[in-house]
Amino acid sequence: MATTVLLTLGRLPKALDLARGLHARGCRVVVAEPFRFHVCRMSRAVSRSWQVTAPNRDAERYLAEVSRIIERESVDIVVPISEEALHVLRLAGRVDPAVRFYSAPGELIARLHDKWTFNQLARGLGLPVPESAPIEDPAAAALATAVDCITKPRDGCSGIGFRRWPRGDALHAAGLPAGTLVQRHVEGEHLSSFSITRAGRVIGTLTYRGRVFSGTVAVCFERVDLPCAVEDWIQRFVSATGYDGFLSLDFILEAGRPLAIECNPRLTSGAHFVQPDTLAAAVLEDADTSFTLRSERLLQQFYTTLTETQRAMFGRGHFRERLRNLIEAKDVVWSSRDPLPFLTMTPASAELLALTLFKGMSFGEAATADVAWFGTPEPLSRAGAPGT
User: Domain coordinates of the chain in residue numbers?
Assistant: First the structure.
């Protein structure tokens, strides 16, 4: 009998990559998604797509609906895809214990998602991170007096709430809310990493940087050579935490020294540079999983990159540079064996497009607003967290 894998979001191309890899491995792929139409629904790699309540609309109803899908579809493995991960990991105790979650334990995921607790965890391991403090801590005011700073929500995503402050600005007078992190502004090259890990061991890592952005989210990205210092940072972190699963980090190289500014304990756009078979093998925990990369070093989400290129044509922006990227980069959705997701991208993305056109959201914000984890009064460690 085929292994049934549930992906808990279907609107993003990274989910499509994983679905295609799992399907090629003979798995039956099911998707749970708040949007009625989405890119994965159009794929021949997906056996069935279920529409569920968005967790930020009604979290308990969302959990109940996903639990019923797991039972009804006889799901063997659950894979959180994006910002919905911390909602999904609260399913512990609600589903058959035989169901495996491809994720590190939920308590660790919660610590890494929170930008402050991640910062402190890494600092405690002796790994370089920028000086930071919660807005409630007097150290935050002292930091803002001494150096240029940035502020961002501890549980935020997609650049929502990000601001930069010149040295000496009175942050408390600005009325910043509780849950804001104050962090030293670091000058240098920004790199993102994507790793596949297993039980504290790194199977493989790559690094990339954004070439075209929608808001703060890269929609065209270039794989670059992995700096030894970044590789060492990740190796030490994974070994010390025993991390298991997909792991993504954002670094700024300050004079060549990598400072980790955020952690995304899940799939990110870096996964597009990995062969889908490698992603599937990791989820299925094949003993001989190898880290095989695609030959392309420049990839894009074509329709979003096209939109940003058109926007640059009629306003301020680097139109020629964006046009060159649009022409040279390979789309992450197109597949001659599975063409419908690309050919129907516009209608399949109608709900996302409506949010960007009529609500003024960036692509990243529109893609995550209804599913992102913005904290909860009930810590995940008490709610329970499935293991791997």
Answer: 4-103, 131-184, 189-335
DSSP three-state, residue 270: helix
Q: Give the whole-angstrom CA distance, residue 113 versus residue 225.
A: 26
Class of domain 189-335: alpha beta
Q: Under the phi-then-psi rule, with left for phi > 0, alpha for psi from -120 to 50, and beta for the rest, what region is 26?
A: left
- Helix ranges (H only) for the chain are 13-24, 59-72, 85-88, 106-113, 115-124, 138-146, 228-241, 276-283, 302-314, 319-328, 340-343, 345-348, 350-358, 363-368, 380-383
pLDDT in tens, 172-190: 657 788 899 999 999 999 9
Phi, psi of 225 (to 5 degrees): -60, 140
Token pair in block for residue 3? 């292994």
Cα–Cα distance measured from residue 208 to residue 336, given in angstroms and rounded to the nearest whole number:
26
Domain 4-103 has CATH 3.40.50.20: yes
One-letter amino acid at 368 equals T
Sign of CA dihedral 61, 62, 63, 67: positive
Residue 188 token pair = 């240098």
Percent of the chain with pLDDT over 90: 74
